[in-house]
Amino acid sequence: MTASLRVSQKRLEKFIYEAFLKTGLPESDAQTMGLLMAEAELQGSDGHGVIRMVPYITRFKGGGVNLQPNIRVVKEKAAMALIDGDNGMGHLVMKKATELAIQKAKVAGVAWVGSVHSNHAGPASLYARMPLAHDMIGLYFAVGNANHLPPWGGLSMLLSTNPIACAIPALHEAPVILDMATTVTSYGKVKAKRQRGEMMPEGWMIHRDGTPLLDPSKADEGMLLPIGGYKGYGLALIIGMLAGTLNGAAMGNAVVDFNQDSSSPTNTGQAIMVIDPDAFGDIHEFKKNMDTLIQEMRNSERMPGVDRIWLPGEQSHQKRNDYMREGIPIPDALAQQLHGLALELGIAPLASN
Questions:
Q1: Residue 265's pLDDT is what?
Q2: Looking at residue 318, what is its pLDDT?
Q3: Rounded CA gap, 353 and 351, in Å?
Q4: Beta carbons of 295 and 95 less than 8 angstroms apart
Q5: What's the average pLDDT block by block, 10 residues per block, for the chain (353 residues)?
Q6: C-alpha to C-alpha distance for 279 and 54, rounded to whole angstroms
Q7: For the stretch 98-110, what's the b/e string if a residue is b when 16 or more beta carbons lie within 10 angstroms of its beta carbon?
Q8: Average pLDDT of the residues of the chain
Q9: Overall pTM > 0.90
Q10: Are strands 80-84 and 110-118 parallel, antiparallel or unpaired?
Q11: Contact 21/348 with Cβ under 8 angstroms?
Q12: Torsion sign, CA atoms 69, 70, 74, 76
């Protein structure tokens, strides 16, 4: 990654806020978008951070997103709820959903909140992480915003990357945070490769005839590969059913490719599950046991040539610390795109103080 520009989290938040305010979002919503998208960059989720700004704004201009949604609860019981996002930005919908799930889990011990009529919400771990501040476990599921995966053995694109994320707190160790697509890579990483002019590694995508597809500019000609072969296909299907079909959201042929369509509502489905470990026993003891398990994994016998065993989320945690100290790197191609956006909107360029 070529990145001559590094910016602080606060500067990036302000840039995103000003851009979205200029393009029609209410002030409080623009602030939320700035906070969450900058957080995505801080944790290294560059395929789901500011690289998405121009596509988001394109959908704003095309009428594909409701800029003043009435995000509301439409179904509710003690440990569940369904939120109608009214075609608002997914970040706004899922922030509300996660906050509600946390409140419910404090009472019920566990809570599940789904969404319908939402949109792309950035990286899955943004929402799985939120319960950590309350010593709770978060699990997030979503239907992706474009289908790039066929059923196992098929050619029709009926499934997306359908991600899952889980965040589990520890005591002194960093929390364990798994954030993964059900495909070998997310489509956001394919976009990032294309923008940087890099080729993809073999194993990410294949052509329709099964041969490797390495050029990200030709991604539309092929398909993503599922993790673990047919098992990844099965996982993508189940997550889509839980995050999409269960909520009355889009799944299968009903999924709108927001990369190609800027005017149609996507009716994206997502779900957040929050578990309160304190409902199962002493929270301090649980977190101490998590530390022990993490250390056992990290210090276990390694294969020859392996320097370290990593836990899910450790490298992201390390990257977060580096970026807070040194600034968030913005690849040159993306920096140029964002500079053009700033000129178009009449806001201060990202490189300015």
A1: 97
A2: 93
A3: 7
A4: no
A5: 84 98 98 97 91 96 97 98 98 98 98 98 97 98 96 96 97 97 92 90 96 95 96 98 98 94 97 98 98 98 97 94 95 93 96 74
A6: 43
A7: bbbbbebbeebbb
A8: 96
A9: yes
A10: parallel
A11: no
A12: positive
Q: How many CA atoms lie within 13 A of 260 on its CB side?
A: 7
pLDDT of residue 351: 85
- Choose among 59, 42, 128: nearest CA to 268: 59
What fold does the segment set 1-62+320-353 form as a domain?
Hypothetical Oxidoreductase Yiak; Chain: A, domain 1 (1.10.1530)
CATH number of 69-183+226-300: 3.30.1370.60
Q: Rounded to an integer, what is the distance from CA 349 to the centroid of its chain?
A: 26
- Cα separation of 168 and 174, whole Å? 9
Closest CA to 153 of 225, 214, 204: 225
- The strand pair at 212-213 and 205-207 is best described as antiparallel
- pLDDT at residue 1, as a whole number: 53
Residues 6 or more apart in contact with residue 255 via CB below 8 angstroms: 143, 144, 145, 146, 147, 160, 266
CA angle 197-188-307, nearest 5°? Answer: 85
Cα separation, 271 vs 141, whole angstroms: 5
User: Tell me, what's the pLDDT at 353?
Assistant: 63
Q: Token match 């988001």: residue?
A: 56
Please answer whether residues 271 and 114 qualify as being in contact, where contact means their C-beta atoms are separated by less than 8 angstroms. yes
Give 57-62 contacts, CB < 8 A, sequence gap 24+: 57/19, 57/20, 57/23, 57/341, 58/262, 59/119, 59/258, 59/262, 59/263, 60/23, 60/24, 60/25, 61/23, 61/262, 62/262, 62/263
pLDDT at 192 (0 to 100)? 85
301 Cβ contact partners less than 8 Å away, ≥ 6 residues apart: none
- Phi, psi angle pair for 183, to nearest 5°: -105, 165
pLDDT at 195: 85
Helix (H) or strand (E) holding 81: strand 80-84
Q: Where along the chain do the CATH 1.10.1530.10 domains lie?
A: 1-62+320-353
